[in-house]
Amino acid sequence: xxxxxxxxxxxxxxxxxxxxxxxxxxxxxxxxxxxxxxxxxxxxxxxxxxxxxxxxxxxxxxxxxxxxxxxxxxxxxxxxxxxxxxxxxxxxxxxxxxxxxxxxxxxxxxxxxxxxxxxxxxxxxxxxxxxxxxxxxxxxxxxxxxxxxxxxxxxxxxxxxxxxxxxxxxxxxxxxxxxxxxxxxxxxxxxxxxxxxxxxxxxxxxxxxxxxxxxxxxxxxxxxxxxxxxxxxxxxxxxxxxxxxxxxxxxxxxxxxxxxxxxxxxxxxxxxxxxxxxxxxxxxxxxxxxxxxxxxxxxxxxxxxxxxxxxxxxxxxxxxxxxxxxxxxxxxxxxxxxxxxxxxxxxxxxxxxxxxxxxxxxxxxxxxxxxxxxxxxxxxxxxxxxxxxxxxxxxxxxxxxxxxxxxxxxxxxx
Length: 414
Prior knowledge:
It is built from 16 helices and 9 strands. The chain has 414 residues and is of the alpha/beta class. Helix 2 runs antiparallel to helix 3 (49-63) and helix 8 crosses helix 9.
C-alpha cells in the first residue's frame, strides 16, 4: 500500500510540475490564449474542472489587464475556501500557492499555504515520507514541540534518511541541543578553517549601518551572473573570503572555462558538485536546505543556504547583513545588480529587466514564505543574528511580510 501511495504521489508531482512549467511559460510570453487548454488538460491536479476554470480566468485576467490585483486576490481566496470540499491532496494546495505567486498574488497565496499545512496535520500517517511532511507542517506552523515529536517517531528509509538528518540538525539548532541531533561537517579543510570564527554573511541590499568584521572573522557573499567580484568602494571594501555561487553563475563558469575568476576567494561554495569539473582546489559542495522546503519544486535562496551551510560547522558564529528578503524597494545595490543574459543586460535594483511578472515568476520559484519563517525561527532561537534591517523583516508576521511583497512586486506585476 505504501508503495502505491508513493507512486501516486510522484505521479501527481510530475503532473503538477508539467502544469506549472506550462503556465509559467505562458505568463513569460504573455500568451493568455495558452492558459485555458493547459488548465483543462491538468484540471484534476487543480481540484476540479470548476477550479481549473477559476484559475484560467484569474491568470488570463491578470495577463490581459482585465482583472486588478485586488480582484485576482479575492478570486483566489474564494478558490481556497472551496478547495477543501473536493478533498484535494496537499500537492494541489501547493500548486495553487505557487501559481498565485507567479501572477503576483502573494498575500492570497497564503490561503493555500495554510490550507496545505492544515490538511497535512489532519491526515493519517501511512508512511515515513508522510511523517516527514507532517514535520514540515508543524515546523512552518511554528510548533517546534510537535515537529520534534514527528522527528522522534520517524522510521528513516533509504528515501527519507537524508531528510531526517536535516530535520534533526534543524531541531538541534532550534532547541539549543535539547531535541534532534547535530549533523556537523566532518573535519575537512573548510570546517577546520571556519571553526571558531565569526562569519558575516553579507547580502546585496543597501544598508543603513556600517558593517564590522571581527578580528579573525570571515565575510561570505553571493556571486552571481554579472557579480563575480566586489567593488573596493562598497561597505566592506570589496572583501569576500567565502563565495557562495548561484546555480546560474556555476553553469556560466563551466561553459566559459573561466574558473580563474574564483582565485580571489579563500573558499567557493556550490549547491551541487557540478563545480568539480572546474578543477579548483578551494571549491566545495555546501550543505543545502532544499529538503526542508515544503514542496519538491521549491528552490533554495542563496543567503539562507549560506546560513544553513555555515551552521553545520562546530563553534561558528553567524551574522547576516544587507538582506531584507526582498521586502524593500531596493533589493540590490547598483554594484550588485545581476546580469540576466547578454542580450537583455543587467536587471534594475529590484532584479527586473522591465518585463511584466518577471520578478513574480522568479520569486514563485523560491518559496519566500518558507525562507522567511525558517530564518525567523533560527533568529529567534539565537542560532544566527541579523542586522537591524534583516531583524525588522524577520520580526514581521508572515501576513505583513507577504503584503509587503505584494506592494513591491505583485500589484505592479513586476
